[in-house]
């Protein structure tokens, strides 16, 4: 019996897409089967790559290969750092977390590569819309039915929940903007209000500010909106935004007052607050990173930061988080993984920006990339498996749906 290789690859490709969609709705909610489905999608994609491997690599764009390599390198840096720097008696929770994140990233590089090797043969836009609605509705359920003050999905961290909602919502908005229907601006407006309301219920200041700004940027970049209608569209979007400010006035005022108080305390050399601790962590992280440019163990970082706090009491807030992370993606990588951690992270940023701007603007990839860069200034995103799953899956889908030129078959050259 003759096996049709193309047919087998097509079946594996479709199965992988289905697994990715299931993982995207389940993983952010902390449902364990979601993580397992993601791992299954990796095993299936690996089999798909190995079948007729020459064809696989010839039909993948150069920028997609670069992205896959950058994700792979960042994952390997995480794993190698643990093997090199973890002492025999090391018991910091950072080690198992970064090993897990490293493995997810390594798997993701092959998954991204495989799904870039074929053309999407069916419409998944409606499924993304449904998934996004489910995620946002769950936030309302947590807040209003379960009484959770700051909704957190399945992440146990409201900030990470906000970032997850933000990138899924940005992907969904980009899909809505591509709909060929006359009333899509109204659908986009309703969805924007819906998503921003969900983000507000997490009370995460960075996302509450950043998501509307990036959404407005998405509108400005949308080629389907004429310059004549752009100002009108922006005004229409600003009206409900002002309305939301009044609707969530008490929540926003509370978070604003907390921020103002944190800044006041920091000016008094008291960093024992949310914002003050972030400033202290950046300063202490840069200092200890500078002194250990090739990396160091988690225990040694804690020891050095505690010494800095002893010498400068204004850095006290940093000591609370030394056994977790330093709430800044670049600073945290520098402080613990050294220059290799920073370079591998920046490679992901640059490869994604390069890909999103090449061969026609891929707005969703561009906005998702800007999101992780901005959110990475106040948190460490690649410390949460739920966020890492969501980011990779949104990235893959944005690439599949992106407005790019057809693939080139290099065998024809």
TrEMBL record:
Domain O-antigen ligase-related, chain residue ranges per copy: 191-345
**GO cellular component terms given for this protein:** membrane
Compartments in which it is found:
Membrane
Q: Name one Pfam family in it.
A: Wzy_C
Topology versus the membrane, per the UniProt entry? Multi-pass membrane protein
**What's this protein's name?**
O-antigen ligase
**Keywords assigned by UniProt?**
Ligase, Membrane, Transmembrane, Transmembrane helix
Q: Extract the GO molecular function terms from the UniProt entry.
A: ligase activity
Residue intervals passing through the bilayer: 12-31, 37-53, 65-85, 97-115, 127-146, 158-176, 205-221, 233-252, 334-354, 361-381
What InterPro entries does this protein's entry cite? O-antigen_ligase-rel_domated, WaaL-like
């Amino acid at each position: 019996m003759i096996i049709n290789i193309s047919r087998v690859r097509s079946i594996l490709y479709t199965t992988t897409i289905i697994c990715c969609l299931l993982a995207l709705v389940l993983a952010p909610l902390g449902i364990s089967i979601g993580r397992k489905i993601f791992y299954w999608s990796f095993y299936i994609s690996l089999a798909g790559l190995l079948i007729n491997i020459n064809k696989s690599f010839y039909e993948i764009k150069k920028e997609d290969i670069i992205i896959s390599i950058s994700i792979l390198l960042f994952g390997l840096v995480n794993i190698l750092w643990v093997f090199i720097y973890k002492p025999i008696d090391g018991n910091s929770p950072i080690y198992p977390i970064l090993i897990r994140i490293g493995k997810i990233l390594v798997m993701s590089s092959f998954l991204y590569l495989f799904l870039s090797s074929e053309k999407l043969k069916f419409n998944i836009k409606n499924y993304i819309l449904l998934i996004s609605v489910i995620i946002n509705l769950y936030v309302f359920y947590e807040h209003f039915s379960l009484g959770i003050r700051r909704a957190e999905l399945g992440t146990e961290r409201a900030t990470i929940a906000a970032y997850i909602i933000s990138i899924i919502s940005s992907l969904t908005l980009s899909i809505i903007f591509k709909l060929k229907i006359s009333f899509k601006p109204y659908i986009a407006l309703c969805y924007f209000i819906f998503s921003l309301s969900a983000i507000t219920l997490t009370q995460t200041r960075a996302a509450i500010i950043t998501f509307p700004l990036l959404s407005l940027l998405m509108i400005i970049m949308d080629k389907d909106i004429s310059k004549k209608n752009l100002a009108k569209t922006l005004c229409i979007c600003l009206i409900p935004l002002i309305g939301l400010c009044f609707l969530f006035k008490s929540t926003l005022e509370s978070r604003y007052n907390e921020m103002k108080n944190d800044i006041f305390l920091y000016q008094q050399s008291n960093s024992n607050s949310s914002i003050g601790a972030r400033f202290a962590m950046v300063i202490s992280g840069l200092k200890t990173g500078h002194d250990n440019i090739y990396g160091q163990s988690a225990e040694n970082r804690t020891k050095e930061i505690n010494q800095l706090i002893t010498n400068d009491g204004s850095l006290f807030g940093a000591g609370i988080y030394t056994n977790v992370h330093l709430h800044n993606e670049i600073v945290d990588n520098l402080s613990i993984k050294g220059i290799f951690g920073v370079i591998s992270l920046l490679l992901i940023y640059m490869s994604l920006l390069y890909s999103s701007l090449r061969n026609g603007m891929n707005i969703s990839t561009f906005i998702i990339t800007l999101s992780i860069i901005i959110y990475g200034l106040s948190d460490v995103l690649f410390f949460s498996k739920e966020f890492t799953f969501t980011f990779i899956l949104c990235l893959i889908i944005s690439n599949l749906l992106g407005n790019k030129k057809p693939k080139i078959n290099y065998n024809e050259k």
